[in-house]
Write a structure and sequence with these properties.
275 residues, Nod_factor_ABC_transporter, ABC2_TM_bact-type, 11 helices, mainly alpha, transmembrane, transport, ABC2_TM
């Protein structure tokens, strides 16, 4: 019996529904992999949880926060940001693994929406990141962190964190399609880790050399960290610079810029695979 290949729907609305269905199918496939092999998710959370415990109980006593604030309340919003940033490694590895094994090419040969592979990966990783953020918030509450800005402000802070993850997700998708080798994750770590620590997550940029402090203040991670500290009602490092005073604006502008750059690059790279 000859298989019948369904025709691609015509019209904007039917094609959109088709793309959403195919994207959700790919997302379910990725989620099924995590459900059957939860080790990757657990290991991905161990590092930020370990850092929280080390800084909260080992180094925290030596850290001075303005106005005598609790260092743990200062630290945790920054750790939420780092958790979102380090998630780019998992995205990169998953995309590069599928590309290196030819799975992505097989998807491209099927009668499915051309955007389903990247949109499905995006949906699965965002669900994974939301769960990881919930675990980190629970860890923060366990070590004494609290939010004081009200529920609405706290939800807005969570929204900013997920917006940052969404933007960095497209960076991971593009680099994964570009590298097509999961072993290249070590090179990505060399890039991501310095960017993550060159921020105001752990210490004030005022303690750094002038040029280095300026880079830290304009780091997208610093903008989100400062904005979510304000929304959570947690202590920060003061409001001496334009970047600090306008952290909320930058926490939205940086992710929008990253998506504007890396989303079209990801789509273009996906279409050019195997050419």
């Amino acid at each position: 019996m000859t298989p019948v290949i369904p025709a691609r729907p015509s019209g904007a609305l039917p094609r959109s529904g088709w793309a959403l269905r195919d994207g959700w199918t790919v997302a379910r496939r990725d989620l099924a992999h995590w459900a059957s092999q939860p080790g990757q998710f657990i290991v991905g959370l161990l590092f930020p949880i370990m850092v929280v415990l080390v800084f909260a109980y080992l180094f925290g006593g030596a850290m001075a926060v303005p106005d005598g604030g609790d260092y743990r309340e200062f630290l945790l919003p920054g750790m939420y940001v780092l958790t979102m940033a380090f998630g780019v490694e998992a995205t990169f590895t998953a995309v590069a693994t599928d590309a290196s094994r030819g799975i992505t090419d097989r998807f491209r040969s099927l009668p499915m929406s051309g955007s389903a592979v990247v949109s499905g990966r995006c949906a699965a990783d965002m669900l994974n990141s939301a769960l990881g953020l919930a675990v980190m918030v629970a860890c923060g509450l366990a070590v004494g962190w609290r939010f004081h800005g009200g529920l609405g402000a706290a939800l807005a802070a969570v929204g900013l964190l997920l917006l940052l993850r969404f933007a960095l997700l497209w960076v991971g998708i593009y680099l994964g399609l570009l590298a097509r080798s999961p072993e290249a994750v070590m090179a990505l770590q060399i890039l991501v880790w310095p960017i993550g620590f060159l921020s105001n997550v752990f210490v004030s940029p005022d303690t750094m050399p002038g040029w280095l402090g300026a880079l830290a203040e304009w780091n997208p991670l610093s903008a989100t960290a400062t904005a979510v500290r304000d929304l959570f009602g947690n202590p920060g490092w003061g409001e001496g610079t334009w970047a600090t005073r306008n952290a909320l604006l930058l926490a939205i502008a940086w992710p929008v810029l990253l998506v504007a750059v890396f989303f079209p690059l990801s789509v273009r790279r996906y279409r050019r695979l195997s050419r």
